[in-house]
Amino acid sequence: MTIWRAKYFRLFLMVSILVIVAIFFARKINFTSSDLGRHIKNGEMIIHHLTHLSTNYYSYTEPDHPVNTHHWGGGVIFYIVWLWGGFKTLSVLNIGIHMLALYFFFRAARLNASFKLTIFFTILCIPLITYRTEIRPEGFSYLLFGLLLYIYGLFNNGRINRKWLYFVPLIQVFWVNVHIFFIFGLFLSGVYLANYLFINKDKAKAHLFLKVLILSIAASFVSPFGYKAFIEPFMIFREYGYMIAENQSVLFMQNRFPENPVFWYFEVIFLISSIIFLVLLFKEGFRRHFIKLALFFVFSFFSWSMVRGIAFWGFILIPLGAWQADALKALLSNKWQKFIRIGMVLIYGMIIALVVWRQPLFFPDTRVAGLGLLPGSNRSALFFKQAKLRGPIFNNYDIGSYLIFHLFPNHRVFIDNRPEAYSASFLKDYYVPMQENDEMWDQMMNKYQFNAIYFYRHDMTPWGQPFLIKRIRDPEWAPVFVDDYTLIMVKRNSDNRGLIERFELPQSMFSVN
């Protein structure tokens, strides 16, 4: 194969992988349970009302509770894109962000590893990086960390000069205002500083990275929230009164959802990469692999302790895995290298088989494929507004952002999917118990005088479904709307009599036995 043919073949492979990953991210949005509605509303409020949302502005239960809307910049971007092109354009933006992030991690891997190994680990990491496909501001964090890793790799290899590093604080200014993972940018700068200061002992480069780190830290204060934005990553769990799935450990989620293959896949890949790392450390020592070890340890800990880190770990593993394998290859004899090549062929064969058998690890869910919203996502909100339903509304956690998008400011929510925006006592002592205990429900009913219950039907908490069953059986409440996503009920009173006569749903529609 000539040099030009090899070059175009490599380009074809890289573009093909990017397209495959794009297909995984081309999923219709379950708008009723996603955070996206609140992000868009944040952007609208900031642009049109010049507020930086420092309190729980959307809730009537704890409106004065302090909040650092650390991802406000992401909301502005989402709002502008949504205003310009709607939800389908937001889907395209999300795909583009993740494709660009993958490109930077791929290029970072290629700085110190062969093309074959980089392609191999990129394909191997597809199930991990596509674990979280929802439109979230954290996509910016993947992109910016990949860009930073690539820039530092170019500098480390002598392919760019020191002037390029002074763009890093500018990246940090943008990052601190779009997502809380900006702290990982500071971590990466600190790792390179420690490498040049203590490992390679290059005073000139250590001095340069010290300046970059100081400037980046200063840049992290350039936010409407000032120093509070900088300390938010360390403080966000200080009063976290609600257990959410993305913040649970891999083992917890695997025990809860044993049918999800991503968790065991993550464990197998982690085990293999850990063994390779241990061999390298035994053969070549700690100093040679300091940067890789720091990245591997921190992001492994992050992903094991919170499943939301699995996607980030998948991106990181593309360069780390390729670098590890390339270094290990140089230590092995030709005989062992032959065995590794055979192993890679077998793994490729396994992946092809999984694709042919349409297994979810390497085959996207065609049931939700596409751009924009899932069909009928906005039907319940349209019914609520057209029927002119009144509040106060009692809603569950999952649907809060959806209601904020559709009903605010005419209606405020009881709760939304930001545990940090509500006190731990409110969540633990009121929100959960009122769904489990009838006396507490009556107490909260007397306090807030709920006129409507607006519930995401697929609430997976132990108390969600039993609460719905009790309210459907409750003669004081009438179900007036149901679809694939939501259930709306109204209080039986004189104000709602006409509405109930027109829209009440028969008990036979619901399986409550």
Would you kindly provide a brief summary of this structure?
The chain is mainly alpha-helical and 513 residues long.
Question: What does the model show?
Answer:
With 513 residues, this protein is mainly alpha-helical. 60% of the residues lie in helices and 4% in strands. It contains 22 helices and 4 strands. It has a 4-stranded mixed beta sheet with strand order 1-2-4-3, sandwiched between helices. Strand 3 (477-482) and strand 4 (486-491) form a beta hairpin. The mean pLDDT is 91.
Question: What order do the SSEs take from the amino end to the carboxyl end, as H and E?
Answer: HHHHHHHHHHHHHHHHEHHHHEHEEH
Helices and strands: which structural class? mainly alpha
Distance between the termini: 68 Å
* DSSP helical segment count: 22
Low-confidence stretches: none
Q: Evaluate the radius of gyration.
A: 25 Å
Q: Could you give a short account of the major beta sheet? A: 4 strands, mixed
Cross-sheet strand order for the largest sheet: 1-2-4-3
Q: In percent, how helical is the residue content? A: 55-70%
- Looking at the chains present, what oligomeric state does this protein adopt? single chain
List the helices and strands and how they pair.
Layout: H1 3-25, H2 36-49, H3 72-110, H4 115-124, H5 126-129, H6 138-156, H7 168-176, H8 183-199, H9 203-219, H10 227-235, H11 250-256, H12 261-284, H13 290-305, H14 310-331, H15 334-356, H16 379-386, E1 393-395, H17 400-407, H18 424-431, H19 433-436, H20 438-448, E2 452-456, H21 464-473, E3 477-482, E4 486-491, H22 497-503
Parallel strand pairs: 1-2
Antiparallel strand pairs: 2-4, 3-4
Helix pairs in contact: 1-3, 1-4, 2-3, 2-17, 3-6, 3-14, 4-14, 6-8, 7-9, 8-9, 8-13, 12-14, 13-14
